[in-house]
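Lest this sound abstract, we let one protein speak, letters for residues, whole numbers for local backbone shapes, and leave readers to judge:
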Amino acid sequence: GTLRDPLRVGPRQHDGGDHPITLPSEHRMEQAERSTASRSQNVVHFLPRTTDALARVILPGLERIDPSQASLQVMIVTPDAESAVIVGNVISTLSGAQGVEVLPVTSANRAARMLAERPVHAIAGPATELQSLIQRSAIKLDSLRTVVLAWIDDELATPQTLASLESLFSELPKEATRVMIARRETAEVEKLIDSHLRTARRRTPSEKV
């Protein structure tokens, strides 16, 4: 399914969002993909907007999570709240990372209340909502290991999105791996890459993720 069609996610979908999702305990990554997961390098992927592509790209970041630490370690920036819920459901179907919880953010207010009760290892949501959570100290980025920009190229022309992204990048730990997924190479995408992912490797659909 595509990230524009949440109905393709299946029976595990949480329509209301803002629900921690626990990953299953088994994983079946191929050895080559395990090698990629162990690297701590910035990457830009040019891929179609599908859940399959999303799963392959974010899995390495999820495998770097230490479940024993009650801290935020992965952040996935989505183009909208609907996509955040889909990201959460994609993660819930992935293999590996036992005990990892993911919070899809559809509302910063609701997410802040949930985070006050229970910390999560990963979070997904629009840049504006995530920035709001950072500003109110609902989430801390000290332990963040990976940030993924998931198909936000469609939203880069929006001034509010750009401002939120710039603010997010200014808060990121220098050692955090930065990953971007874009559907196409545009002037806005190139500007973002030049500003924040200058040393990133670039991968196209013909290359193995």
About this structure: DSSP finds seven helices and eight strands in the chain. Residues 51-63 form the longest helix (13 residues).
